[in-house]
Amino acid sequence: TRTPVNVTVTGAAGQIGYALLFRIASGHLLGADVPVNLRLLEIPQGLKAAEGTAMELDDCAFPLLRDITITDQPSVAFDGANVALLVGARPRTAGMERGDLLSANGGIFGPQGKAINDHAADDIKVLVVGNPANTNALIAQRNAPDVPAERFTAMTRLDHNRAVAQLAKKLGVTVNDIQRLTIWGNHSATQYPDIFQALVNGKNAAEAVNDEAWLADTFIPTVAKRGAAIIEARGASSAASAANAAIDHVYTWVNGTAEGDWTSMGIVSDGSYGVEPGIISSFPVTTKDGEFEIVQGLEISDFSRARIDASVAELVEERDAVQALGLI
Ligand code: NDP
Questions:
Q1: Is 187 labeled as catalytic in the residue annotation?
Q2: pLDDT in tens, 88-143
Q3: Which of 55, 135, 319, 323 is most buried, most CB within 10 Å of its CB?
Q4: How far is CA 93 from CA 41, 97, 228, in A?
Q5: Is the pLDDT of residue 87 over 70?
Q6: Own/partner pairs for 23-28, CB < 8 Å, 24+ apart?
Q7: Which of 72, 92, 129 to mutate to test the pocket of ligand 1 (most atoms within 8 A of CB)?
Q8: Ligand 1 centroid to 325 CA: how many Å?
Q9: CA of 77 to the centre of ligand 1 (A)
Q10: How high is the ipTM of this complex?
């Protein structure tokens, strides 16, 4: 029998955490034959609710779930962690300045980065979901100097999945017919969902759409503003789809992209495609055996270049801001 994988989830008592934990425990994060231990990190006020969720997890009698730890101590939560999903973050409240938001999150992701550095397993893989995800991931990464930088990633898979779904609807096909879509840049309103390289049943998707106005005025804003549209419709944020995307991100990272396809992940830039090195930006990546590579050699049109540059500029500003605050 396999040794259980230690999976740490922060903000475990939140909305996304509630949608995430049951799927991790039922084998969707890593595979249907991989047992897991869950480590739930919460702030003190969240511990009781996390205990309630743990009771429900017990009541599912999941065959793959071995052990649950609930704690408010990062050193305990990340002890021996193989996979860490950093979901808990300080949300922006009305009237909050960006500097305050970044400082508050620096106070969360800095210590978590240090705890990962000091306590996690050698093969630790980190996914940051809590917003501003890319910059929170950068803060954690810079506070974990002994962990290879590429182990810190930020989630743009929800944007990727949203874009695939919108494109499939537009073309009257299923999501299975779409490949090679890319989200570039920041998980924010400046993100750029790129269909110029995408394929629909093996043919170029942009040519199949053949409507640049739809791309610029409908597709891109629909994907970028989807989170707000869901809050407007549901009266609550998109927790289940965000949790699903977190599952997809890690599953793909560990188990690989399909031959001929790729996915989108926020990762530390190596300067590919002119993206400022060191920032955490979304790229097209292939994955295999738990490692990923940026897809190289794609032709970037002027339409795409301007949008990638704008989103990267926003990430550089966020990096400069957290640097000025002494958070990295
Ligand atoms: P959610 O579980 O709904 O969201 C958690 C984070 O995910 C937020 O930063 C949110 O960003 C982000 N997020 C990313 N993508 C999406 C998406 N598509 N839709 C919605 N959210 C998205 O928040 P809750 O308030 O329900 O729960 C947060 C929990 O975290 C609380 O239980 C709190 O106690 C805990 N917490 C734990 C910490 C820790 O473990 N140290 C630290 C801070 C909080 P956005 O704000 O932009 O919606």
A1: yes
A2: 999 888 888 888 899 999 999 999 999 999 999 999 999 999 999 999 999 999 99
A3: 135
A4: 22, 9, 15
A5: yes
A6: 23/243, 23/244, 23/247, 24/247, 25/57, 25/60, 25/62, 25/64, 25/65, 26/60, 26/62, 26/64, 27/62, 27/64, 28/247, 28/251
A7: 129
A8: 22
A9: 17
A10: 0.94
